[in-house]
Amino acid sequence: MKIEIGDVLVLKKGHPCGENSWKVIRVGADVKLECLGCNRIVMIDRVTLNKRIKKSIPLK
Ligand SMILES: [Zn+2]
């Protein structure tokens, strides 16, 4: 799946804060995501992330 900065990813497993939508803020070997619920930032490797994506909402 193509991942671009600004996309919102809905993951299968939610964050402990109750939100499961994340905004992509950096893309590389690892992807940096910001939780839309609590603004916490996490790094996750692409392979793991691809398995966890339920839905991707493109920026444009
Ligand atoms: Zn959160």
What does this structure look like?
With 60 residues, the protein is mainly beta. It has one domain. It has 1 helix and 5 strands. It has one helix at 46-52, and strands spanning 8-11, 21-27, 30-35, 41-45, 53-57. It has a 5-stranded antiparallel β-sheet, covered by helices on one side. Bound molecules: zinc ion. Zinc ion (ZN) is lined by residues 15, 17, 19, 35, 37-38, 40. Residues 15, 17, 19, 35, 37-38, 40 line the site of zinc ion.
Can I get a quick summary?
The chain is 12% helix and 45% strand. The protein has one helix at residues 46-52; strands spanning 8-11, 21-27, 30-35, 41-45, 53-57. The chain is mainly beta and 60 residues long.
Element layout with pairings:
Layout: E1 8-11, E2 21-27, E3 30-35, E4 41-45, H1 46-52, E5 53-57
Antiparallel strand pairs: 1-2, 1-5, 2-3, 3-4
Bound molecules: zinc ion.
The site of zinc ion has 7 residues, from loops.
What is the domain tally? 1
Largest sheet: 5 strands, antiparallel
Count of individual beta strands: 5
Order of helices and strands: EEEEHE
Strand content: over 45%
What does the overall shape look like?
globular
Oligomer state of the chains in this structure: single chain
Structure ligands: zinc ion
End-to-end distance: 16 Å
Share of residues in helices:
10-25%
Rg measurement, Å: 10 Å
Please state how the strands of the largest beta sheet are arranged side by side: 4-3-2-1-5
